[in-house]
Every structure is written in C-alpha cells, then in structure tokens.
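Quick one - inputs below.
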Amino acid sequence: MFLERGNSVEAPAAILLENLFKVYDLPPGSAGAAQAVAADNLNLRITAREVFGLVGPNGAGKTTTLKMICGLLVPTAGRIVVNGIDVDRDPEAAQGGIGYLADFFSLYDDLKVWEYLDYFAHAYKMAPETIAGRIAEVLRLLGLEGKRGAFIGGLSRGMKQRLGIGRAIIHDPAVLVLDEPAVGLDPKGRIEFRQLVHELNGRGKTVLITSHLLHDLEEMCTSVAIIEKGRLLRSGRLEQILGEGARERRVRIMVASPGFPLAEWLSRREGVRGVTGVAPIGAQFSFAGGEAELASLVKALVAAGASVYAVEPVGETLEKVVMGLSSGEIT
Amino acid sequence: MPANPELTRNIRAQLRPDRVVTGAVICALLSLAVGYSMAYTHGGLGRAWGLEFLRVAVAAQAFVLVLGGGLLSLLAIQREKEMNTFDFQRVTRLRPLELALGKLFGAPVHMYFIVLCLMPAALVGAVFGHARPTFVVAAYVVMLLGAISIHALALLLSLLLERGVAVTGGVLFLIVLWLNPLVAAKFWLDLGSLSPFFASDLSTQMTWAVMPRPPGTTIYISGGYGMTDVLFGWPVHHAAVAVVLYAGFAAWFLLAVVRNIKRDPAGYEIFTPAQALGFLLFINLIFIGFFRWSRWSAAEAQADLLGLNASLCFVLGVALLRNRDRVRRLYARGRLSSGWLAAAWPAPYLAAGTLLVGLVPAAILQVLGKLDGEWDLGVALFRVAMFSAWLLRDFLYLQWMNLRRGGRLRLGLLYLAVFYICTGIVFGTLNLFGTPRGLAFTSVLLPPAVLSPRLGAWAETWDVWLAALCAQILIGGIFVSLQRRTLADLSTPGRLPIPAPGAA
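Output:
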C-alpha cells in the first residue's frame, strides 16, 4: 500500500520517530555535563521494506533508540510509531510486529532448539496449529534443520546467533530490529548473515540494523542514518549519503608506461589534489572539475606520452562519510 | 495456565527425565532412611510413628517449597536480566499477568516436583498415624498458599532490586520466616505464626475446635491454643486465617509484579497511590482485627498500633516515591504541574494514609476501649497528628534525596538511620527520655517519642509537644522547598527536552 501525498507517491513508514528525546543522568562525579542525551530531537522515517542502517560511534544512542522502538525503554519525550501503532499507547500490539535481537544476549542453554522457537512462537501468540510448520520453515531458512533436537548449550557461536535471529523472526514480524547482529561472527558467518538479511528483506521485511562493521552495512542497507550524541547528522538513501559525502570526485588512472612520472605530472595539474600512487603504475586523486575537464586531463596525459589503459571513478565509502561527519566524541 | 509459554519453558528446562529420575530416587531413599530411623526410635510402625513421620514429611516439603522455591524465585528475573534474555520476554506479546504467573509457578517448578516425590512418605505417615484427612488437606492448602505468597514476594524483590541486595535481603527474610515459630513473640496480636512451616503441625491436628488462649500465653505451640486466633473478639481457627491472609498477600505481591514486569526499569512503581493506600488498609485490617484490645489500656493500645503502623506507612511511602527519570518524563509530557502539590509529593497520599490508620483505632478506642485515667481524646488526636507529621517530614526528605542527581535514596536512608541512632544515643546519655519534659524535648528531633505511653504528663508538657509538632511541620516545609528547587531545576528548558512546535 502506498500513500499519495500531493503529486508524489510515498511508501508507507514502517517506523516513524517524531521529536524523540531520551535524557538520563550521568552518575554523580562524572566529568562534564550532569546529564546525557541518548536521543536529541530525533526524527526518522523508515520506509517499509527497507534495510535501514543506524550508524554512529559508541555512546551515540543507537541501542537506546532501538530499545525505545521496541518499547523496552520509555522516551523522555516524543513519539514512536511502528507499523502504524503508537508504541507508547499500545506497546504489546506494536511489539507483535517487531522482531528484536540485542547486541549481547544469551539463549536458554537448557532448552532444545525447537523448544526455544516453540516458546517464543507461543509467547507471540501465534496460532498453535501453525507453530510446528513455522518452526520447520525458520530452521530451514537458518540452515539449522539438523540441529532441531540439539540442546542450545552445545551450539557454536554462529549457530546461536542464527537461532537468535530465528527467535526474532519466528512470528513473521514486518519489522526486524537488529542491534549489532554480526558481533562475534567469523567472515563466513558474516557473509551468511548478509545473505540472510537480503533474503528476509526480499520476503518483505523492513530491517533496522546497527553495526560497527560499516562495510557490511554498505553491502546490506538501502538507507542509512548517522547519529552522534543522540543527534541525527545525516540520513537518506545510501547512494545519496555516499554522494553527499564526496565533496570532490575521486578518480583512478592506470598507465602502461614504466618510468612515466604520473604522480608528479598529475600534481602539477589544476583541480587535482591528494595524489597517491597505485600499484603497479597508476594514481588515485581528487578532481574538482566536471566530465569535460576530466576528459581534457586524460587527453593531455596521453599527449604527454603516457599509455592510459584505465580511467575510473572511485566511490566514497560509508566509513569515510561517517568519519568525515563524526567529531569522534562520545556521550 | 497449562498453556502458559513461560511455565512450559520452565517445565521443559527443569523437569528433564534425568533430573526427574534423580530427584525421585533421592527423595525415595531419604524417605526410607528417615522412616526406618524413626521406626527404630519409636519401636515399630505404630500410630505415634505415623504422626511423627507425617509431621517430618510435611515439614520437609514446606522447607523445600518455601525456602528452595523462594530462592529460585529470587533468582528468576535477576538471572534473566544478567543473561539479557529478559528483554526478549518483555518484547513478546505475553501479557504481564501471563509472564508473572509463568514465573511464579515456573521458577520453583522443580521444588513442586520434589514435594510430589515426598508425598508418598507423607501419605504413609498419615495412614499409619490415623491422621484426619481434612487436616492433611488443610496442611497442604496452607503450605501451598503460603509458598505462593513467599514466591510472589521473592519475584517482586527479584524484579525491583539488584541481585546482591535482592538475594541477601530475600535469604534473610526466608531465614526469619523459617525461625518465626520459635522467635515470634505474639505480643500485640492474637494471631498465630504466619510462617507456612506451621503446616507440619496442622497436618497432625485432630480437632477443629477453637480454644482461646489463657491470658499470658504469648508464643504459639503445636496444637492446642496455638491453632486459635481471635478476630474482632471471635475465636477462629488459625488455618482458616492463614489461608485468607496468604491469599491476600499473594494477590498484593502479584499485583506489584504484574504492574512492573514489562515496564522500563526507570519507570518502576510498586503500586499506584490508591493501591498503596489499599495495601495499607489491608494490613491495618489485620492489625485492628487481631489486636489484643483487652490486654492493654487504651493509651497503650493506641501507642502500640501507631508503632505497628509506622513500618507499614514506611512501605507506603517508599511505594509512592518518584524517581528523577519519571519526574522528567512527566514534565516533558506536560503531565506534572510545577506547583506546590508536586513539590510536596508524596505528602498528600501519605497524610491520608497516616491519618486514616491513626484515627480509626483512636475512634475504636474512644467507643469500645478500656478507658482509664491515662486516656484523653485530645492527646490521642495529638499523637495521630504528630505521627503523621513525623512520617511526612522523613518522606519529604527521602523524596528530595531521590530526586537529586543520581537518585540518592539509599544514601538518604543511611543518613536517616545514622541520624536516629546518633540523636538517640546523645539524648539517652543526657537522660532526656527519663523525664516527661525531656521526652517532649526529644520529640523535636525524634518524634517516635510520641508513641511513649508516658504522655500522661501532658498537662505539664503540652507546650513543648506542640512546639515539637510545629518543628516537624517546619522541617517538612524546608524539604518541600528543597524539592521545589530540584523540580524547578529539572523542568528548566535547558534540561528538559521540549521540542519546538513543528520541529522535525
């Protein structure tokens, strides 16, 4: 369902944060201010079926924001709406549409895998006749069919992480809230996790995710928000954020001319800054001009005797954008 | 209840076949060993052996259920919080009552199983001892309800307190409860032990007849007088009283758990003000109903009842205290005025409670009491006013401390305790408690002096007593003013996040 607003068609919001504040006191004797702000007039609109990354340094307020969205913490002021339900007014109804995974958690080691999922399926009030089928489906999705009857205490870290996600999705929620879900996973586990998020998103889930692994987020997210000290620094579609982050175009030129002083030559040209060498023979630099100026630059380089075999734009990374925006301070 | 997911989870985790078999075998071996040993002592399997074996079996069951189950309930939520699994339960669609009931019966489910395993021993004892079935059933009802009320209290402590405090406090409480039949001097109330351990005595009773105790009997013993309570002058069997009281306590504790189990910890609030008042009245009904009116003079009775109520009003006061986070949220949402009423919190409700529990006994005494030369209605009313002003003073202080940065309630309680101990020592050294006028002077700082029965010298000292009352009001006013300043600081725009209109 899409909502029409004027001439534009806007996707419905899965999560809406309006003027959200969360203030708490720092312990007596803390240096600086007496109180900390985990959310400082946060306004966010997360469209349905997005994979939305919430990025920021430690203490930025990410976990607090996620917990407020799940109804686990009460905001000092402001409003949160999830799937059209005001979390403050009807937390249990809102929670029925949310799957939540905390950053550090344990499972019940003395339960079997299927018993764990069965417990949460009943706790989410699923129809009893659908539960067995749903558990089988989730175990298949997570690749844990072979562990159905195993005790949780005997699972590996990666399997437990997957089971945690299984718990979050057992009731087929429209919104998934994942707080640092890739912590402690090995590279293979992280790849599998990214695939799982893609698959869940493909099944129509809205995913709100925080992670310090910005490369992972870049691969998974369709939109991101960058927060610091509870304040929203920037939010939007990923490509838009990466585009805005790049003040100048980064270009890489590769030549097949051993002995040609490429870096030196480029450094003397107008509009070129920050030249760094690239092996085997090439350079990467920031260029202030447009396409026409870049074409002229390449033409001049060829005229100077360099055999150019590659000219390519170098994209901005989320990591660089975050580092550029962040003051590096934590609350 | 069988469909409660939290209960099912606990049953699955705690009653695995290996644990069930181990528990059953150990119980069977213990039952046989104890039974054999007792038969050896009693010279065979006679009636005396049967009754004794029944009593021991029921006592063991009560021990396991009340203490073991109490400890497991104390740890139930603490452990979940530590493992970070409690948030996962809070975020489900389990209703607070479902979650609370699941934990109430689920956390100690292994102890319930052990009780079942010991049941054959109890039944063998009952058969050989020719025990009356109604008493055996009554003993189990008492044990079960008593255990449920203790488990509900333990669950509440587990929810509200930090692990160390909850476990230490809870264990001490359980030990006192266990020892209760031995140490509890039933001085003021015609009410038997409220420890569920009395179920073992109950199981071997032979008659429901009630026999009021002779004057001077202060400690309940097994059987005989021990099973008779006196409610509003009527003898009633203690088992019936215990069942009603356990059910009442369990309901109050469960209400507090249900109110808070899915809340943000920063917003914990044991009872609403109205519920806190209701709890106070419930306990007062017990005090008034079972009070030994006939034993004391009216003045002594009033002083003793006020003394008993002081601890209750303390519970009411703590339940009403607001923390800084909650006040900030109330301000940010425009749900709290900045007037004097907010600055005097929790005085209005506490005043209502203290006056109510003070005036009702005074009225009863005036109408029905053993009035003598010591009794003076004016003095009695003054006592109530002083009692109320004293508690208001202390709670206005505690509320102010709790609203300060960092929530200094614990420090406030510590300072208060130190204050009472130090002034008590100094006044005692100066022998101020020894003379009527000295006693009146001490009440400026130590208002509990008003509970002393030596107010008979009122005519000589009324001016000092009135000055002491005024002093309480003045000190209370100072704390109201301090609280007002703290509230003003909390509600200033720089500290309070109120978004500008249309901010987005």
